[in-house]
Amino acid sequence: MASVVRLAAGLPLLFLAGCYAPLCSPGIPASSLPDSFRVPVKACSAEVNYAMLTRPVAPAHILGPDDLVRVEIGDLSPRVRRLPRLDGAAEPPAERPYSSVFETYVDERGTILLPLVGAIRIADMTLPKAQAKMTEAYAEGILDDPRVSITLIQSRTTRVMVMGNVLRPDVYELPRFESDVAHALTLAGGVLPERADEIQVHRRDRARPTPSGFPTLAAPDQQDCFPEAVSVLRIPLRSFPPVMITPEQATLNDGDVVVVREAPDEIFFVVGKLSPNNFVRFTLGRDDRDLGNGFILPKDRDVDVVTAVAMAGYIDPIDSPTTVTVHRTMPDGNPMLIHVDLIAARGNRKENILVQARDIIYLNPDGAWYFRRTLDRILPELLTAPYAETMERLINPGRLN
User: What mean pLDDT comes out for the span 378-400?
Assistant: First the structure.
C-alpha cells in the first residue's frame, strides 16, 4: 500500500516534469490558410513542349552569309581553239561553249563577286531568285543569252556547346534552320530525364547603351566599342503554369552554351518523437547520404504534412503527438508557423497543407498527448501496484524483511 501512496504522490511530479515543452502549439491554423497552400503543383505541372524549342523551318533555303555556293556561267569565255589533226582524221563534234564554274562563300554583307559584274547581293533570297537576279545582271549588255545556275554546296552552321545532364556533352555545329535548342539536344543524345530539371541557354550579346537605358544590339562594325552583355534563358522541364518559349528565344547563335541543369534535392525536416525504423526516404539511389532527420521530397509528386509525418516514422496517437507546427520560410525571408492537427487532417483537406522544400515539421507535445501518454504508461502500474507487494512476498519472502 505504501508503494501505491508513493506512486500517487509522484504522479503530479511526473506529469509536470514532462511539461517543459509548450502545451499550446503555436502557429496559424492550416484551415485558415488559402487554397494556394494546397495546390498540387507537381501533379499539375506540365512537361515542356519540345516543339517550342525549334525554330520555324523555311519551305526553301534562304541564302545568307557563310553559305558556300557553286556558280556556273555559260558562254562567259570563248571556245577552246583546236589545231587540225596531223593524221587527217575528222574533227570531233563541236563541244558546248566553255562555262565558267567557281565556288564562293556569301560574305557578311550577303554578296558574292561575279566575273564582269562585280558584287551582287543574294542574301535573303532563295536559289531560284538568286539565279534570276544573276541572269538579269549578265543580260544587261554582257552576254546575249546568259545561262547562269547556282547550287548550294554547304549551308552555314552555328557552333554551340551543349553541356550538363545530356548523353554526349560536346561542341556541335548546327545547320541553318536547325540551329535551335531542340536540335542541339538531339545531337547531344537527349536529356537525361531522371536527373534533369532545367534547360539554360547562355549567350553573349554585344550591347550598346541607349537614352532609355536599355541595351540594343550594336552594328557589326561597332561591336568592338561596346561591352558584352550576358543573358540566360531558363526553360524548366516541368512547370506550373506551362512555360511558353518563342521561336526567337529557341534560336541559337554562334557561341551560345546550352546547359541542362541537374535538379537539386528538395529536403524537409521532421523533429520530434519518431520511430527510426519506420521512416521512408525518396533517395533516388543515394542511400549513403546522411540526412539526419531530413527527408528528400519526390520530384514527381506532392507530399502533404500527414504523409510527411508518416514518412518520418510516426508511431501512433499514444506514442506520438497528434499536432504539428510547420516552420516555413516565406519568399520574403520571414518565417511562418502553421499549425496542423493530424487527426482532423485525415477527414478534412482544409486542415492539411502541402510540404515545401526546407520546411521544418515539429511534432508538438501538447497537453492532450501528455495526458494520453501518462495514462497509457502509469495506469497499468496503478492497477497492479496493490498486488505487487503480496506477489513479491510469496515469490521472495526474504527480500522484504
Answer: 68
